[in-house]
TrEMBL record, chain A:
Pfam families per record: BPD_transp_1
Keyword Transmembrane in annotation: yes
Keywords: Cell membrane, Membrane, Transmembrane, Transmembrane helix, Transport
CDD domains: TM_PBP2
Location relative to the cell: Cell membrane
Membrane-topology annotation of the record: Multi-pass membrane protein
Family annotation (InterPro entries): Bact_Polyamine_Transport, MetI-like, MetI-like_sf
Listed name of the protein: Unannotated protein
Family: Belongs to the binding-protein-dependent transport system permease family. CysTW subfamily.
Biological processes annotated in GO: transmembrane transport
Organism this protein belongs to: freshwater metagenome
Domain ABC transmembrane type-1: 82-272
GO cellular component: plasma membrane
Transmembrane regions: 28-51, 88-108, 120-144, 150-169, 198-219, 253-272
UniProtKB/TrEMBL annotation, chain B:
GO biological process, one term: transmembrane transport
Transmembrane segments: 7-27, 70-89, 101-120, 152-172, 254-273
InterPro entries: MetI-like (IPR000515), MetI-like_sf (IPR035906)
Domain ABC transmembrane type-1: 66-272
UniProt keywords, alphabetically: Cell membrane, Membrane, Transmembrane, Transmembrane helix, Transport
Family named by the database record: Belongs to the binding-protein-dependent transport system permease family. CysTW subfamily.
Compartment list: Cell membrane
Protein name: Unannotated protein
């Protein structure tokens, strides 16, 4: 029956109309392909030019080489800057994840006086332009006679990461089924045990996501860092400063490597998550 | 008793930190903004006064950059919304089992440093890139037209850099829409456009509001795109604040400008949220 129906209908539609119909139906998918191309053009460009045999300034294509990948620290200062960024990123992630997760549990799990004020205090840093946050922290450090540098930068990064951690973890807490915890209590788990064996494992993916977000925000931050780091160089600062005289191809190598590393972490994380769900 | 105290104990370290390193600096910035230069003192020496005319001076001196910041940020936000909405819609409704993967791909460009990507745009749109020669040979732009160091490049760079901030919240709220509501609308003889206007768009408003805010706020305070992709005539407020701090060492003006920027953003954001009618943002 259905075979007959297919035979009867398909040949009657002319090819042009079929193509038109296919485009009409898939317009939004075609659009999405274009949008992703737009998103990835500069990433592809950065990756391609990491293989450029460029010498000092990586502006014009001069020939293919693997040399930049074999010697990513070949350009002066670049690995020092990268090391600083990684150190700052880890410290900022560690502290902001702990502080932010505690706040998220307080706001997401408890009704208390001042809850809406707390929400406002979390929203404010996100509504403050980076330049204002960076400039105001710098002026505080100047008043306190603290020289800008490594620790001021770490502190600044914790400040802007906390809000994003709170929002991410809170969303995960809100999506939890409260019956799971009730079930644990019914099975005579006390509050602490319930938290450790039921709540925390369920919220853990949210905390991991928040930590990854915090690290990438910290690693990529330029504006606030520029205000509070003094003479310390971070990876984004290195790029900004060397942009005037040409960025060495090693910076492209590190940028591309970070891209693939982060992509791998995220995809592996998702696969692990999916397996757990099954 | 312990139950009542728990949330406050959880909040204490984080809020203590935020108070010390976010609220106090803002208060301190307010104080700095009314300081006066010590007459006959060194560069960067200021004394605490209540000179509110700093604000007026700073504004009058930089009203062009001020207007430009908001104009560029608004254009970039609108463009980002126009680009991101169909994309978020496609991921939410058409991606099937690839939904999570595509979502990762939206964020993925983030992991290449945003400065590297902005500089990549500068080179792609520059004289040696492939865009300008192609457009010239097609006759779309004239021989003398350049794309870098223009306001077009600055706005394009901002649109590009903040696109994921727009796409993610849009996706989150479109993804929550029950496809059956769209079917119901169709069953009631609404065409595609009406369904979008009366059902999809209103239901995705929280995402539109969150996305536009997350794009507009950093865009208004940005100076990196203007510094890399622009020229002296595309300077934004951020560029002025930066140079007041580091090159001219004029802290009061920089502080007054920062404060004006923040106040203007907060006022705009409040009006916008009122108008859009969504309170639940965080």
């Amino acid at each position: 029956m259905s075979q007959k129906l297919k035979d009867a209908t398909i040949p009657t539609i002319p090819l042009g109309a079929r193509i038109q119909r296919w485009i009409g139906r898939n317009l939004i998918r075609i659009y999405a392909v274009f949008a992703f191309t737009y998103l990835f053009i500069p990433v592809a460009y950065t990756f391609a030019f990491s293989f450029n045999d460029s010498g000092k300034s990586n502006l014009i294509w001069k020939g293919f080489t693997l040399g930049n990948w074999q010697n990513p620290c070949g350009a002066p200062e670049v690995c020092n800057a990268l090391g600083n960024s990684i150190k700052i990123g880890f410290l900022a992630t560690f502290f902001s994840t702990i502080l932010g997760t505690m706040i998220a549990f307080a706001i997401g799990r408890h009704k208390f006086r001042g809850r809406s004020t707390s929400n406002l205090l979390i929203f404010l840093p996100m509504a403050t332009p980076e330049i204002v946050m960076g400039a105001s922290l710098l002026s505080l450090f100047l008043v306190l006679k603290i020289n800008p540098g490594f620790w001021p930068t770490v502190i600044a990064h914790i400040v802007f990461c906390i809000s994003f951690v709170v929002v991410t973890v809170k969303a995960r807490i809100a999506s939890l089924d409260p019956r799971l915890e009730q079930a644990a209590m019914d099975l005579y788990a006390n509050e602490f045990e319930t938290f450790r064996r039921v709540t925390l494992p369920l919220v853990a993916p949210g905390i991991a996501g928040a930590a990854l977000l915090a690290f990438s925000l910290s690693f990529d931050d330029f504006i606030i860092t520029n205000f509070n780091s003094g003479t310390l160089t971070t990876f984004p600062k290195f790029i900004y400063v060397s942009a005037a005289r040409g960025i060495p191809a090693q910076a492209n190598v590190i940028g591309s490597a970070m891209f693939f590393l982060a992509l791998t972490i995220v995809i592996v994380g998702q696969l692990v998550n999916r397996r757990k769900v099954r | 008793m312990g139950k009542i105290r728990t949330p406050y104990l959880l909040l204490l370290p984080g809020f203590g930190f935020l108070f010390t390193f976010f609220i106090l600096p803002i208060i301190n910035l307010a104080q700095t903004s009314t300081q006066t230069r010590v007459s006959g003192g060194d560069t960067g020496q200021y004394e605490q006064t209540l000179r509110f005319t700093n604000y007026l001076d700073a504004f009058v001196e930089n009203k062009e950059q001020f207007g430009r910041s908001f104009l560029y940020a608004i254009i970039a936000t609108v463009l980002a919304l126009a680009i991101a909405y169909p994309l978020a819609y496609a991921i939410a409704f058409k991606a099937g089992k690839y939904k999570n993967l595509l979502l990762v791909l939206v964020v993925a460009p983030f992991f290449t440093s945003f400065l590297l990507r902005t500089i990549a745009w500068k080179q792609i749109l520059g004289e040696e890139g492939f865009v300008v020669p192609t457009l010239r040979s097609l006759g779309i732009i004239s021989e003398s037209t350049t794309l870098t160091s223009t306001s077009f490049a600055v706005v394009m760079g901002m649109t590009y850099n903040f696109l994921p901030f727009m796409t993610l919240p849009l996706f989150a709220s479109i993804d929550r829409i029950d496809p059956r509501t769209l079917e119901a609308s169709g069953d009631l003889y609404a065409n595609g456009l009406t369904t979008f206007r009366r059902v999809t768009l209103p239901l995705s408003m929280p995402g539109v509001v969150a996305g536009t805010l997350l794009t507009f706020i950093p865009a208004a305070g940005d100076y990196v795109n203007a510094a890399i992709l622009g020229n002296p005539n595309t300077k934004m407020l951020g560029n002025v604040i930066e140079s007041r701090y580091f090159k001219i060492v004029d802290y009061p003006t920089a502080a007054a400008l920062s404060f004006t920027l923040m106040a203007a953003i907060l006022i705009l954001v409040t009006l916008y949220i009122r108008k859009a009618g969504t309170e639940e943002l965080v």
